What does this fold into?
Amino acid sequence: MAVDVSIVVAIYNAEEYIDNCLDMLTRQTLKNIEIICVDDGSVDGSLERLQAYSSRDERIRVFTEENKGAGAARNRGLTEATGKYMLFLDCDDFFEPDMVQLAYEKAEEQGAEIVIYKSDQYNMDSGEFVYENWAMIEWALPPYEPFGYRQISTNIFKAFVGWAWDKLYLREFVAKNDLKFQEQRTTNDALFVFSALVLAEKISTVRKILIHRRVDTADSLSKTREKSWDNFYRMLLALRQFLKDREKWNELEKDFVNYALHFSLWNYNTLAEPTKTKLRNKLVSEWFEELGIRQRHKEYFYDEYEYSQYEAMLKLQDTP
It folds into this structure.
């Protein structure tokens, strides 16, 4: 019998989370699944834990890669997947028991190429759950499903977040469009996600929190972006090229430029010094112009607050 859903999990030095992750996945209410675990060159006991678990459940398949980052690991999982649909999950998150089934049933019911569901943050310091209402802008979505990006009444690049793990994808759709993850340290899933959202003719949602994202303020990849502070810029350049190659640029140029400003500011605001100043200098001297932001008037931008911060950055750079 063909597999309904392939679940790809990229793992790097996540020994402490593996048992919990695989317990939740093997106990999903949808049973006809495969769990593709790609170990990204871990140097702790992750691989041994994965192999031990796979020996107890034949639905778990384990692959190993040299350490190239989550993007490369997901790409390997993508090539190994056999299911009708695919999920790309992080090992340290945790999941509702009916997460896969609800997403799968919605896709089957509506013939969707992408199904997006809600998420929240689990703060590992406080033990609190915080709903991520900005990860799905419900007011901007049409009152019917499925829909395409043209029916969304806000910037397509801000209607949903460019992370992969809150979305189910039709594997045939991904293969037909040759979608791949960027193989870079951070911001490696946004190109894949936004490309899929732009190309999909049928997007559906599950308006229920199905996944919980651990947030560790003391130690997380997102808090160490100083090591890969330019990866977001590389993603934006690749996304722009994708839009041009797929003849979407004329239609989506304004959305892209507005998102480029938004994402540039987000990266700037969340970096620590001295990398923060390094990024500001690069944005003001080169990247704002390269991304098409510098050439636009104030009226071109959707968000007045973001534009005012952008202006302040320009003035600060001009101050002796």
Notes: The beta strands are 5-11, 33-40, 60-65, 85-90, 94-95, 114-123, 129-131, 167-170, 203-215.
